[in-house]
Design a protein that fits this description.
The chain is an alpha/beta fold. It folds into 2 domains: 236 residues, 3-Layer(aba) Sandwich (Aspartate Aminotransferase, domain 2), CATH 3.40.640; 92 residues, Aspartate Aminotransferase, domain 1 (Alpha-Beta Complex). Helix content is 42%, strand content 17%. The protein has 14 helices and 13 strands. The strands form 3 sheets. The protein has a 7-stranded mixed β-sheet with strand order 2-8-7-6-5-3-4, with helices on both faces. A 4-stranded antiparallel β-sheet has the order 9-10-13-12. The longest helix is centred in the last third of the chain and has 16 residues. The two termini are 24 Å apart. The structure holds pyridoxal-5'-phosphate. The site of pyridoxal-5'-phosphate has 12 residues, from helix 3.
Length: 346
């Protein structure tokens, strides 16, 4: 049976065009800087984001960790959202591996960190205090509903960072979803940031890999530390070849995923027992809660959906997240809605 997989956009398999490009890719030893396909991908990524240089890394988690390690010394502090992937879902790497101290502040419902909260969290010079070095934003903000942060807001945070001698890193795992949803250039969205990580392996459908971008000096240090973390890869052009197709072919079509998320959300609004998050989804994620009268547990719903050929995942107590991507067509959206209707009729 062909499953409809709504668990995440990470489940996207490489497209036929990617597989062909991977098979034909020119390769070399990338630790020596000799892989022409990796070099091409890195140049493309830097150019598209308007930064000096870029580095291909095995995962978004490693990209974010490298950014933290380059920006901060041991004992330094990072201002980060309390719903940020970096804070919640990266195994505490910044503390465990970097000795870096997180200062989590509340993510607002729209995914932002309030400017006043950021200002209030910057440590003052005092013998007792850590040194604040870095602010991290997440765009789109996953846990807040896949919401995109605006260029204007990002610019304000960038200004605040510069005024206070801090750096700004954007966890832009889905930065292209944010750009496409707002019809702005990704360049403009990340212009205020010193460094950005984005994923090729999510909605852009590459099998593996993320990019870290920043200044030449920043990337040189990140390359050094990537080797330390065991992320120096050899003939990795076979993966970069897929990444190039992600950047060339998979960005504009993200609009389709966003339209299907809205369709999915509209369909689910008609299902008794589900309470959709307010507002229409702005990118590719649909969040909902189970209403109080639903007696099924999260796991029972997951199981019953699987029996109907639809893979879903809960994201919290009585809370679910469904994600659209390039393998989800209109028919899949319809089937998912009717499966949930059937399950909740129990
Ligand atoms: C997926 C994700 C990451 C990490 O990417 P991996 O490749 O899974 O390590 C980082 N930040 C956000 C917001 C993500 O959704």
């Amino acid at each position: 049976m062909e499953y409809i997989d709504l668990r995440s956009d990470t489940v996207t398999k490489p497209t036929p065009e990617m597989r062909e490009a991977m098979a034909k890719a020119a390769v070399g030893d990338d630790v020596y800087g000799d892989d022409p396909t990796v070099n091409k991908l890195q140049e493309m990524a830097a150019g598209m984001l308007g930064k000096e240089d870029a580095l291909f890394v095995p995962s978004g988690t490693m990209g974010n960790l490298l950014a933290l390690l380059v920006h901060c010394q041991r004992g330094d502090e990072v201002i980060v959202g309390n719903k940020a992937h970096i804070y919640l879902n990266e195994v505490g790497g910044m503390s465990a591996l970097g000795g870096i101290h997180p200062c989590p502040i509340q993510n607002q419902a729209d995914g932002t960190l309030a400017l006043d909260d950021i200002l209030a969290s910057i440590q003052t010079e005092d013998v007792h205090h850590t040194i604040t070095r870095l602010i991290c934003l997440e765009n789109t903000q996953n846990v807040c509903g896949g919401v995109p942060l605006t260029p204007e807001y990002t610019r304000q945070v960038g200004e605040l960072a510069r005024k206070n001698n801090l750096s700004l890193h954007i966890d832009g795992a889905r930065i292209f979803n944010a750009a496409v949803a707002q019809n702005v250039s990704v360049r403009e969205l990340v212009d205020p940031a010193d460094s950005v990580m984005f994923c090729l392996s999510k909605g852009l459908a590459s099998p593996v890999g993320s990019m870290l971008v920043g200044t030449k000096k920043f990337i040189a240090r990140a390359r050094h530390l990537r080797k330390m973390l065991g992320g120096g890869m050899r003939q990795v052009g076979v993966l970069a070849a897929a990444g190039i197709i992600s950047l060339e072919k998979m960005i504009e079509r993200l609009d389709d995923d966003h339209a299907r998320a809205r369709k999915l959300s509209d369909g689910l609004k008609q299902v008794r027992g589900l309470v959709l998050d307010a507002g229409s989804p702005s990118t590719n994620m649909v969040y909902f809660n189970l209403s109080d009268d639903v007696r099924l547990s999260e796991n029972q719903i997951v199981e019953m959906m699987n029996e109907r050929g639809v893979l879903v995942d809960w994201s919290g107590v009585r809370r679910f997240r469904l994600v659209t991507h390039c393998w989800i067509d209109d028919q899949a959206v319809k089937r998912a809605v009717s499966a949930l209707k059937e399950v909740l009729a129990h």
